[in-house]
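Predict the holo structure. Ligand: magnesium ion.
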Amino acid sequence: MRRELHGQGAARGSALGRARVRMPHVLEIVEERVEDAEAELARLHEAIRIVRLEMQALRERLQGALAHEAGEFLDLHALLLDDPELLQGLDALIREERYSADYALRLQRERIAGVFADMDDDYLRSRIDDIDQVIGRIHAALHRDPTGVGGVAGEILVTDNVAPAELAQLQGQGVMAVVTTGGSPLSHSAILARSLHLPLVVGAAMALQKVNDGDVLVVDGATGTVVLEPDAADLRAHRARLRDQARERRQLRRLRRVPSRTLDGVDIRLWANAESREDVAEAHALGAAGVGLYRTEFLFLENRELPDEERQFRAYRDLVLGMTGRTVTIRTLDLGADKADRSGLVLDNEPNPAMGVRGVRLSLRRPGLFETQLRAIARASGYGPVRLLLPMVSGREEVLEARARLERVRRELRDAGQPVADEIPVGAMIEVPAAALALPGFIGELDFLSVGTNDLVQYLLAADRNNDALGELYSPLHPAVLRLLAMVARTARERGKPVAVCGEIAGDAAFVPLLLALGMEELSMHPGTLLEVRRAVRGCDLGRLRARLPGLLRARDRAGIEAWMHKVLPNDDKEAIMAR
Ligand code: PEP
Ligand code: MG
């Protein structure tokens, strides 16, 4: 019988497939013994072999930003999968106690969890999530049809939550969509699902109770609707959505070489947030103005050793060369808070790392580290236009000190005969509310600004950007956020300084009219969303939007802001993006 479930649409796209239900952990598995321990062992070893192969295939498939996102998890999971203690323990439980492989997995999980729970180190304690994910993978492989290629191709995963690293793998296996009972459309997983174009519905609270393995589902990732046992009308609607998606992709492809110009003829600069060679190539092919944000911390997260000057220089120089003369904005190290650190640079026991020694605060306390990075960036500037961007700036002193160090490094390099640009513009991330408010007092020391809405929203609203439980509270659609953005744009305009927005909202077409109305004329985003944003820009009339700014700033709450957005959205985009 047809039924509907409702959650929040987190990544657009329509999918039809059979449900694969994954219960939260393997903990519900009851004690079970088997007759033939050797056959059970063989089943377990085969499942482990499959998981190893899947992980290898995933590593090969991952590219670009995803490689950074997921690579760390994969390394750790590969290590766990080879852990002799885990493996021998499982074998012993099956061989000696004749437990089923599932029950042995559960017992091993509990034993390891007990050891981890007693550890002093928060980081190690939190690794139990990784153990769960590895054990979950083996468990899933144990129950997969051995003839089915990839096991889950064509299926729709229904589960409690999904990790970013897992999403990429699921897509690689041919999973059509994901439905979760928890999660938020602003989580990291949701961001990643959007860039992977994998339909995702989050917060479908009853999904695990209502959906059974094998049920046929239609998932609409735009509206958050999940239909169980769809009827003919649902299938027709699904096919219509697929046709619309295909048409949209064709339309977007046509926008690769057109200017990002509003209806009233104003060019909006669209930059790329790019870290990998693939991102750079894509940014180039799609006509990005340049790289608006290169997050250097990824270089530091890849290995345990800190990258030396030479290694950093090569990475920055290749980035500059890849953009063939278009400007590249290199952000100095922004380790800390949510950016997990294996380098040992970040203080271990900070009670509140998001408000701790991160970004430029860390760089200024570690002059050797900072100057190495500045030298590498300055050397790269000899190969093409480079701008330097300082993260987590909270005031004037930090900018002055960083500038003085850059100047010294530049002079030293020049005196030593190295090719260095005559000028390296210096900008600040505006992501700490104090910097936004104090901007008139120090904008004179800056050449450009980049607004990091991901952090600005978190600090302004005191809402952790990674805490799904906060739901809609962590959102740029708050009157305080909009007023601050309007202020920053106005200050920048009055002082003739370019300002870009480089947080996630800059890559979301639904926000384009709002950001343009607020006075922003430069946006920086992952190249995967650049064409959608360009299309939205081309549907906007900047003059009319600006005329409506007072109405936007009068909105008293989220509902008022959304009503404004709905009113101004170009008709073509309305249906496609408002539902998100
Ligand atoms: C931001 O805070 O908006 C930003 C772009 O920086 P990150 O996401 O790297 O903190
Ligand atoms: Mg930030």
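The first helix runs from residue 37 to 61. Confidence is low (pLDDT under 50) at residues 145-151, 575-580.
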